[in-house]
Amino acid sequence: MKFFLIGYMGSGKSTVGKLLSEELNHKFYDLDNEIEKEYDLAISEIFARKGEIFFRKAERKMLEKLINLNEDAVVSLGGGTPCYGDNMELIKNADSVRSIYLKLNIPTLLERLQREKTDRPMISHLDTEELLEEFIRKHLFERGFYYNQSELILDCNDKDLSEITRELVRTLR
């Protein structure tokens, strides 16, 4: 079985994914990291040098590769992965994949992303908290349609990483 973690940037997909993979004794994959290894470039460099269309094709190819793995795994997807092309349909229709949406509210995402802004090229240019909040609000509105198609939706507000991991382990076993 493979568990695909879905959610907005800053929702904890990679961190929870690592913890969950340890608890379940599954291999952990981060989709963006796998793309970076494949092309020997950072995601931001791929966007800058080759463009978004190239990136989305590479993302789709890697998504298919991870879906078709012959091992148990926890996979952290990029925040936009389920929202492009028919990626969410591909995930939903895969026999050995369960999708999990790590859902956070806007104030929690805003607080986390405000702290991480410099490390995230998509939002580093947003100078004020108001601009960042508007950006998050718009994206969540657009992406919510896809995220909410996940097999499991876990409210992660007011929970620490260990609580989220324990709740997932209980639900998935």
Explain the overall architecture.
- This protein is α/β, with parallel strands linked by helices.
- 54% of the residues lie in helices and 14% in strands.
- It has one domain: P-loop containing nucleotide triphosphate hydrolases (Rossmann fold, 3-Layer(aba) Sandwich), CATH 3.40.50.300.
- The chain is built from eight helices and five strands, in the order βαβαααβαβααβα.
- The chain is globular.
List keywords for this structure.
173 residues; alpha/beta; Rossmann fold; 8 helices; 5 strands
Given helix and strand content, the structural type is alpha/beta
The total strand number stands at 5
Number of domains: 1
Query: What's the alpha carbon Rg, rounded to whole Å?
Result: 16 Å
Instruction: Give the SSE order as H and E letters.
Output: EHEHHHEHEHHEH
Give a concise summary:
This protein is an alpha/beta fold and 173 residues long. The chain contains eight helices and five strands, in the order βαβαααβαβααβα. 54% of the residues lie in helices and 14% in strands.
What's the helix and strand layout?
Blueprint: E1 2-6, H1 13-24, E2 27-30, H2 31-39, H3 43-50, H4 52-67, E3 73-76, H5 87-93, E4 97-103, H6 106-116, H7 129-147, E5 152-155, H8 161-172
Parallel strand pairs: 1-3, 1-4, 2-3, 4-5
